[in-house]
């Protein structure tokens, strides 16, 4: 067994199985405490909530709790391994919510036969939470699941693999293209993968200026083009009228490669065919489409990012989901809309251009980090992310009319 494999198994097994537990926030030592926490005292908040449902935010933890919900059909890049196998990842997302944004989470793994069954399960428990983070649900089902749940739930529902990934990808991409001296409007883009992350990443890059006809998207059968008759409605949006059929065809002269597919799909030969000063986001987890070592030895003008914590330039939705929910919960937003997503993109990208505090260098093990090829995006443990991203998101929620509360006074200022 490799060192990392054993360390990872031990990390999850010890000192107690798993990565998260529940902590009490009120005293529960004496009979008096219990008479308040439970019978008879608990009847009072029950009556108050029955009288006015908004009181649930005052007397319970709902407003600071997010459900992380999966069916295990697209666990990282490992595929459909079922709900139970997804549990370590969902506990991991709960760990990240708590560690980075002080949000409490429950991971919920759902076994189901139909999309309708999944949607009903989630919709029926949704009111228990302040928000719902859908995770690792494969395309195309994820699109209908999210759309239906957004319609049915009164709290924000956010498919992290779509929108969290897209927000971080857009933030990193705009910075990387700046460093490479390229305009997103003119960039030829190859997207390997045509699932949840791919469709959302490309749609958001288009909102940021990319041209749809300059995007070549590939799935397991190759380039998505107008003469294919096997495309679902989401892939069809990216069908190009082109003779290109393979990655080799599409990658020639490309400025950008975004990989949200599987391991080792971009070879050194492919990379060599890209335009000068290319940007490669090999974001498949745990194994990227190309290893950074190989990318860098193949050409020294490349900016390479991965989804992993153990390489520079971590383009991973961890930079977004804790903070976008922090902002949304704090103004009780009923949805996470495009305005909030775009605000998050700009807040994340801006932070990478600022001086990096010593505590971040210590946590990342870097001697220095300055905006440039190996530092296009902030590190997850940069504690400024919470204030910057949450504030930008909360302001956008208030301005776009989806917030039930005003921005709290002096929000995120200390
Ligand atoms: N860094 C980050 O923050 C994130 C990274 N990801 C990564 O993106 C990847 C996809 O996740 P997600 O979109 O949720 O999953 P989906 O199951 O929704 O989509 C997977 C897509 O990848 C394509 N694909 C898989 N293998 C190949 C291959 N050998 N050649 C070409 N295309 C392939 C599939 O093609 P087809 O349609 O033909 O089946 C499908 O379009 C995973 O590796 C995941 O770890 C996802 C979210 C966040
Ligand atoms: C990071 C993440 O959400 C994924 O790889 O699926
Ligand atoms: Mg995921």
TrEMBL record:
> Which positions does UniProt annotate for (S)-malate binding?
285, 316
Top-level EC class: oxidoreductase
What does this protein's record comment on cofactor binding?
Answer: Divalent metal cations. Prefers magnesium or manganese.
Q: Binding positions for a divalent metal cation? A: 135-136, 161
Q: Which InterPro entries match?
A: Aminoacid_DH-like_N_sf, Malate_Decarboxylase, Malic_enzyme_CS, Malic_N_dom, Malic_N_dom_sf, Malic_NAD-bd, Malic_NAD-bd_bact_type, Malic_OxRdtase
Signal peptide, first to last residue: none
What is the name of the protein in this document? NADP-dependent malic enzyme
Q: What does the record give as the reaction this protein catalyses?
A: (S)-malate + NADP(+) = pyruvate + CO2 + NADPH; oxaloacetate + H(+) = pyruvate + CO2
The Malic enzyme NAD-binding domain covers: 162-398
Instruction: List the GO molecular function terms.
Output: malate dehydrogenase (decarboxylating) (NADP+) activity; metal ion binding; NAD binding
What is a single Pfam family found in this protein's UniProt entry?
Malic_M
Q: Which residues form the active site?
A: 38, 93
The record's annotation in Gene3D superfamilies points to: Malic enzyme, N-terminal domain (3.40.50.10380), NAD(P)-binding Rossmann-like Domain (3.40.50.720)
């Amino acid at each position: 067994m490799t060192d990392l494999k054993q360390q990872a198994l031990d990390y999850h097994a010890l000192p107690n199985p798993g990565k998260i537990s529940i902590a009490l926030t009120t005293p529960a030592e004496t009979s008096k405490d219990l008479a308040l926490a439970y019978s008879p005292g608990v009847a009072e908040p029950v009556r108050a909530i029955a009288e006015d449902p908004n009181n649930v935010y005052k007397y319970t933890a709902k407003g600071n709790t997010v459900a992380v919900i999966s069916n295990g059909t697209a666990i990282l890049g490992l595929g459909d391994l079922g709900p139970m196998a997804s549990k370590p990842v969902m506990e991991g997302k709960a760990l990240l919510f708590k560690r980075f944004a002080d949000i409490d989470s429950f991971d919920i793994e759902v076994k189901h036969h139909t999309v309708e069954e999944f949607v009903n399960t989630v919709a029926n428990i949704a009111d228990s939470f302040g928000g719902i983070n859908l995770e690792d649900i494969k395309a195309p089902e994820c699109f209908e699941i999210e759309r239906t749940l957004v319609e049915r739930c009164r709290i924000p529902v956010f498919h992290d693999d779509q929108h969290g990934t897209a927000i971080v990808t857009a933030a990193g991409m705009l910075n990387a293209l700046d460093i490479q001296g390229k305009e997103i409007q003119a960039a030829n883009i190859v997207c390997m993968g045509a699932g949840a992350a791919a469709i959302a990443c490309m749609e958001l890059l288009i909102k940021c200026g990319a041209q749809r006809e300059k995007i070549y998207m590939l799935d397991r059968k190759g380039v998505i083009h107008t003469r294919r008759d096997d495309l679902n409605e989401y892939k069809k949006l990216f069908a190009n009228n082109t003779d290109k059929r393979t990655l080799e065809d599409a990658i020639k002269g490309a400025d950008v490669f975004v990989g949200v597919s599987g391991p080792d799909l971009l070879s050194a030969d492919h990379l060599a065919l890209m335009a000068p000063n290319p940007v490669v986001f090999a974001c498949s987890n745990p194994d990227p489409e190309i290893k950074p070592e190989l990318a860098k030895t193949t050409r020294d003008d490349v900016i390479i990012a991965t989804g992993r914590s153990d390489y520079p330039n971590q383009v991973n939705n961890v930079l977004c989901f804790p903070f976008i929910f922090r902002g949304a919960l704090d103004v009780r937003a009923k949805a996470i809309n495009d305005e909030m997503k775009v605000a998050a993109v700009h807040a994340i990208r801006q932070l990478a251009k600022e001086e990096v505090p010593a505590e971040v260098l210590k946590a990342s093990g870097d001697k220095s980090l300055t905006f440039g090829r190996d530092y296009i995006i902030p590190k997850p443990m940069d504690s400024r992310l919470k204030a910057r991203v949450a504030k930008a998101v909360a302001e956008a929620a208030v301005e776009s009319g989806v917030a039930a509360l005003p921005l709290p006074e002096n929000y995120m200022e200390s």
